[in-house]
Amino acid sequence: MILARDIMTTDVVVVHPEDPVGDVVKLFLEKGITCAVVVDQKGKLQGIVTDGDIMAAIRQRRPVYVDLFNSVFVLEDTSDLNAKIKTLTSRPVKEIMTRKVITANEEATIAEVAGLMTDHRIKQVPITSQDRLVGLVRRHDIVQAVARNTP
């Protein structure tokens, strides 16, 4: 039986809640990654930030309400994309990260971890021990494990 500890990446890229989003974007590009786990100064899991979180933050639009002749119209915010990106990159990670993180422990089977990914439509699962990050299992890790064990 293959367990999470057998396939997890232990060299996990971590960031802190106060780190600017711009620094995280640069880190993603430098390391060729699409996510980082957010931990506090004591190493306790706080969240996860992914390329999807960054895309959602860029796309986030505030509606503009217009009251015209006693009728309310909702218009889309069409503010300049460059201005949104500039604002986003200076914001702290804690403002855009996913806080409700689906985790597993080192003893979870590959099937359990794959089930979490499928059920919650996520691409990676942080592996924890006593609320501390010990690794990360990505979809790629599961596919590699299947390939290694295919006759």
TrEMBL record:
Keyword annotations of the record:
CBS domain, Oxidoreductase
Q: Which GO terms describe its molecular function?
A: IMP dehydrogenase activity
EC numbers listed for it are 1.1.1.205
CDD domains associated with the record: CBS_pair_BON_assoc (cd04586)
Please, which domain of life does this record's source organism belong to?
Bacteria
Boundaries of each CBS domain copy?
Answer: 8-64, 97-151
Enzyme class label: oxidoreductase
Against PROSITE patterns, the record matches this protein to: CBS
Recorded hits in InterPro entries, A to Z, give: CBS_dom, CBS_dom_sf, Diverse_CBS-Domain
Q: Which organism is it from?
A: Neomoorella thermoacetica
The protein depicted here goes by the name Inosine-5'-monophosphate dehydrogenase
One Pfam family this sequence matches: CBS
